[in-house]
Amino acid sequence: MNLSQHNQFSSKASQLLSWGHWFTFANIGLALLISLSYLFADSPPTSFMGITYMLVTWLSHTSFIAFLAFVLTVFPLSLVFPYPRHIRGMAAVIATFGASLLTLDAYVYFNLGYHLSSSALPEIISLLWHRLNSSPALTTILAGGIVLVILGFQLTVSNFTWQNLARLKQLKFARYASSFLVICFALSHSIHIWADANLKFDVTKQDNFLPLSYPTTAKSLLAKNDLLDIESYKQAHNVQINQQNISYQLPTPLTKCEDYTPAKIDIFVFETAQQLAQFASNRNLYSTKQFLQPTDHNDMLFSLVYGLPAFYKSTIINEQTLPAWQSQRRSVEVTGIAALNFINDQTHTNSAIRIIKGTDDLAPRDKNTHVYAFSLADNNKEVVITSTLYSSDKRITRVNGLIQPSDIIATAVGQYLNCNAIAEQTMLGVNLHQKKDNMGVNYSQGVVIAYKKDRITLIDPDGDFKNISAAEGFSIEQGLDIPFLVHSIKKLKTFTQ
């Protein structure tokens, strides 16, 4: 009797195991369909090997995730609880949850550029909340409809495979499909090893395009966003951030500043800290030591005038492109910056904004003038440093977090001249009166600079990175915050075509 019960138990478990394989095959097909969106979320590879790697990785890795989910959930349940009707129902619910989670991850990756993770939770919640607020009824219907369609698919497949199990066992499809997926799995890893050894960035930049795949490195992140000069790396083993083909492209049409408010803004840049201290000592100015500026003076001055990182400097200076906000009202005067002298309009004698560098005998035009003053950074080994910024605007001392040179011009145009819409449309600098978060991005000396609260991440030209404290300057032993860096690089490339 015990032997008979044991055989009956084994028979049910064996049948459920066989059914589970076919149920998993059906879910592999569904997972492949959902994960197609990952293939179109980023710019496609351009080489034959890159395209081959993308396809075999998509097939093998997605299938592996679906199979692993079966092994970790349905398979052990089938062994300890071999009751077909209950197992098939539970499997349908579990698979619905998994497929819905994959759909959510695909949506997040398509919109934000990274996968679901605890570190990205605030950004993900913000994305979903914005979507829900923009169209609550449609979003609810779509989300609920997707879950119901997936559940209906799972129940249908579960019942069909169980009822036709004997006929399905006679098919050789499963054997051939399994062998093909195993070959794809081995091939994808072989291609990646070869590409990593031979600097084939068209392959390695795809490291993290599927969930639970290779962890993204700083180098693959830069390559993925076309910020590596790969040819130079092949020739000299020295990766350079690629600025040669940067196309500076502003959104169109530009917002017109209809409610322009006449104001005077003087921005003084002193050569030394001593000159700055002497200037500030005789005036009623407020100070903050949260001013983050590049140590390269040309990069800093460009950012101060245009409200943009020096990522766009070469293109703008070579083409002598005027600041977008100035093209509507020639309202800026630049003194002491030879490379940007083309901005000045000799016929305009009373500019709203004056940016003056170099002397120690400067004075505001009158008592109603908004004043900003700081000194050039001392040359040192760091790409950026924090220093003191003086301002006649007391609210600047209450700003939450770091302040960049680009934020000063954005505040001047957006707040004092009342042209906030065009400042937001044409600059990466932030109006300090409206700053809501303590994060930002910059670029200097070929280094991507991203900060979040007190942590500054520097991604060097060779793809290496380090984290430093903004307040103290010491190194922070911490890994890459991939979601934040993806967001920062996308922001850096806002005005590329």
TrEMBL record:
Protein keywords: Membrane, Transmembrane, Transmembrane helix
Membrane-spanning segments: 21-41, 61-83, 90-110, 137-161, 173-195
Domain Inner membrane protein YejM N-terminal positions: 7-249
Protein name as annotated: Inner membrane protein YejM N-terminal domain-containing protein
Originating organism: Pseudoalteromonas translucida (strain TAC 125)
